[in-house]
Amino acid sequence: MNRQQNIVLGVVVGNRNFFPDSLIAQGRQDMLDVLREQSIEAVILDEQSTKLGAVETWENAQKCAALFDENRHLIDGIIVTLPNFGDEKGIAETIKLSSLRVPILVQAYPDDLGKFALERRRDAFCGKISVCNNLYQYGFPFTLTELHTVHPRSESFRADLQQFAAVCRVVKQLKNARLGAIGARPNAFNTTRYSEKLLQGFGISVSTADLSEVFGSAAKIGDGDQRVKERLDVIGAYVPTSGIPAPSLVKMSKLGIVIDDWMQQHGIDATAIQCWDSLQLNYGVNVCTLMSMMSESLLPSACEVDVTGVASMYALQLASGKPSALVDWNNNYGNDPNKCVLFHCGNWAKSFFRDVKMANAEILATTLGTENTYGTVAGRTPAGPFSYARITTDDRNGIIRAYAGDGQFVDDPLDTFGSRAVVEVPRLQELMKHICKNGFEHHAAMNAAHTAKILGEAFATYFGWDTYVHSAS
Known about the structure:
The protein is an alpha/beta fold. The protein has helices at 21-37, 58-70, 88-98, 124-138, 155-174, 196-200, 211-219, 226-238, 246-266, 278-282, 288-296, 307-320, 362-368, 428-437, 452-462, and strands at 8-13, 41-43, 77-82, 104-108, 143-144, 178-182, 205-209, 270-273, 301-303, 324-333, 336-344, 357-360, 374-380, 384-394, 399-410, 419-424, 443-447, 466-470.
């Protein structure tokens, strides 16, 4: 199971020999210092391997590629830094020979208007275009800094670097994700159908478990089992359980033990669990609290066997380092065209709430009985940043598509139950048209951060998915 990890970047320092050596030496040091500040490890040629530790010739490219290949299992991405014009071919050949297929960030130094004499002239503004042209010719996708030329020590580049590190996390871990589908898709939910084969084509694997196996394993665990007692303590420490019958809590504990064991056995990063309404009918509890606990621990969990929904949750989590949740685009908010209500019975990670308690699923209780629906997590999300995303397999066209965007949680009044939030999304009606016209699901993933640009770059540039990023302006 993958968790948030430190990023390791291969660094290629581009050089053209007739530019001053001092520019390369200082540029190399600038980049290493900034990476160190961000706790990013660098794999870079030392200054004895090539002139100034830079890449210019075919021989330099071979040496740098060999270093990258030696560290291929560590390297999450590559930075190409251009203190001067750089050698476009040497840079492209380095990446080709390394055989790495990781995100690439291209950074070029700005010239100083007062230093255009030969001893300080860089020409990296032009050199960056040539490097990008070669990367395009060689078929390597790449990422650009916000400004065409930018100094590594600037705040603008620090923001570029943070975003690029997040893109690297999303790409590396999503293309190796192991998702668990526990139970069959609820028969009434055609909307959560998906293609395992399309996901597998991008490295995303799905392992399955039947609910009968889960219920059978839970039934074999005695009420007095030490692990049940320990799990009851963990649940009680996670969320207040006042008013919840003890037998329901015991059932939850056993279910949690079985799911944890299965995830460990199969190396699962995220789960999608059948809930509506087999768990209530055949086992007698809601699984929401357990899903909330998993998501809070950065092991996201979605309901209704929404596998592409939990993939969306995982992607948002990788981008931000914070828990995600699965939501319904559920209700209009009065007459405000840019606000709506997000809702689910109660499986959101508790960090989405100020105050939280365990409750029952009130909608399901109307037909299944309150006694069978305990286990939801109820709370209201306060004001703050908000990102949303959705990955879907478009089986009609044999492709994966996605959307992402940023908005805000707001504190506008809302009198209802369950896990709930009011959000404001600029041009929300335009977004809803895109969702409906393009056959997206009613579920979306959300996260308490602004990461739409990160996901847009990861999905479109490095996975090649048809991706719509909804602009906040």
